[in-house]
Structures are given as structure tokens and as C-alpha cells.
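Handout, page 2. Input:
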Amino acid sequence: MTERPFEAMARGPFAALLQVPVQGYRWDAELTEGEPQDGDHQWLVAPVPVGVPFPARQYAPLAVPNLHRRFARLRRTPEAVLKFANRYGLLGHGRALLVNSPHDAPSPIYLGESLRFWQDGIATLAPLLALWDLVQRGNSLALLPYVRWERESLAVRIQWAWSEKDGLLPVARATERDARRVALVATEARGEQDRSLLARWRYGDTVEPARYWVCEQVNERLRGHVSPAVLPLRKGEVYFFPDCLRSALYTHLLLEVSGRVRPAMLCARPGCGRYFTPTHGRQRHCSGECRRLAYYYRHKKEGTNG
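Output:
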């Protein structure tokens, strides 16, 4: 496996490097988590049992543009999931699976994830992104079917349905096969924190409650799955490392929501050594001072050579 410079792994204050088997994954309906299972249960599994080395390639998930949106658009079929996994790896850390055999001999253990796990992951992230897009555009009218204010109890709820065919839908338009969800954002009866939230929002506003809820969902899914680390070889800089692909996908969304979507880069002034997050595509220096010094030394060198 070839080493990559650290800056290729980083995006803002986050960094990640994942591995994918060169052989790819496969679907297996014979493996179980212990007792034999009834019904068609497909597992996406690693090519070899746990403990057996295999060739793998590395990639930086935070350096893949819009990886979270590619995942959210993924068709929930075994073929589409397998193709995505062969390129980007398992979503989480995988479950320990055994070969379903009647013999008493020790069974090799494989790591794998169910098709349902992947389908649920897509069905969770996709509507969150759809709601965030409406928030980002400030489309209060388009959010009306999804953000419900209750006057009597003074509460705000988010409610939606999700269809693989039609995407985000109002609950009233959902069919029996569509996934539905209702989530309480804030209510006066729940405590002082919720009351202070409701006081900040204009009654009937849809954008700010939806924005708050999207941020809370991202925080919830990253809680316990991102670890800070001080990097001694980088002058004690602090970075945060997602623990798996699913965490990296939500880190993509976190950076999008926060506005920090550009990767960290090394200041172009020789001798500076600082990494920074550019605010525009042409920025090459961490500060105006470094930009002026780089200009000064460049022209001084040109004058000396001339």
C-alpha cells in the first residue's frame, strides 16, 4: 500500500484513511450471526476470514467530493451496494459471521454487513440531505409540509416520508411501502432548553427549526464515532478522525452544514509550515502576512538572479 501525504487525508479539522480489499466483497446468504436464520438474509462479506491477510488499497474518504451524496443516491439493490462497497468499503466495522455448518469443527469468522443495514443507512441519510437542501435554499414554503407547529402544546415536529422512487414526500402523499417518520424538535413541556429554542424562533417558521434538527441529527450520528488526536509530527496540531465510512459520510455532511467544505492545505510560503482551510479556490497562503512575505522573497530572489 502506498503512503499518502497527510494533507490528502484531511478536510478542515478532520482526517481519515480507509482500506478496501483489492479482491472486493461478495454477497453470501449462508453465513449467520450464530443460530441459523430463516428467510433470505444476504451478507456483504470480506473476501477472506478474520485473521487471514489480504491485499488492500487505501483511500481518503474525505477527499472524495460529495461522497455522502453519492451514497444517498445509491439504489438499494445488492448490485448497486456491492459496486459502491468494492470502491469505498464497508459502512461500519462489520459483524462477526459464521459458516452455517452442522459439524462441530471450528468455523471461520467473516466480517460482513447485511443488505438491510445498507438500505437503512441510505434511507436515513437521503431524506436528511433533502431537508438540508431545502434549508440551505431558505425555501420556507417547500418546508411547510415537513415542519409542523402545534399551537395548543407549543411544539415543533419534523415529519416526512421517504420513497426510493420519489424521494422526500409529505406524509399525506406516502404509500404503505414508503418509510414514514415523525420527530419532535422542541416542545414547551420538555424543559427550559426547549422553551429557549421556541423563544428564538418566530412562530410558524420552518427554516430555522429544520436547520436545528438537521444539525442535531448529524451530531447524534457522529457522537462516539469521531476521536480527537494530537499529531506530534505536525507540531501538535489537533485533528478529528472518523472511525468508519459511515462516520466519514456524516463528517462530509457536517462540513457542508458548517460551511467548511475545502480541504486543509500547507501554506505556500517557504518556512511557514502551517496548514489552513482556504476561504476561496485561489488562496495559497494562511494569512496576508505570509502572502506579502512570499511576494517579497520571490521578487528579491528574482532580483538577485537578474
